[in-house]
Amino acid sequence: MKSDKLITTAEDLLTSRDETRAGFIAMALEKNYLATKYVSEARTLKAIAESAGKPKDLLTLPDIQKALLSASGLSDKSLKHLNEADKRTAVVGLIETFLEPAGEGFPDELVYRYLLTKGDALGGSSRNLAGALGDRRFLSCMISVFSLAGVEFSWRDRKTKVWAKGTDLEAGLEKSISALYWKKKDRDRLLVLNTTVPLIRKNVDLVILDAKPDDMKAGKSLFEQNTRYVALGELKGGIDPAGSDEHWKTANFALNRVRSSFQGLGLNPPTFFIGAAIEKSMAGEILQQLNSKVLSQAANLTKDDQLTSVCNWIMNL
Question: Is 19 left (phi over 0), alpha (psi -120 to 50) or beta?
Answer without folding.
Answer: alpha
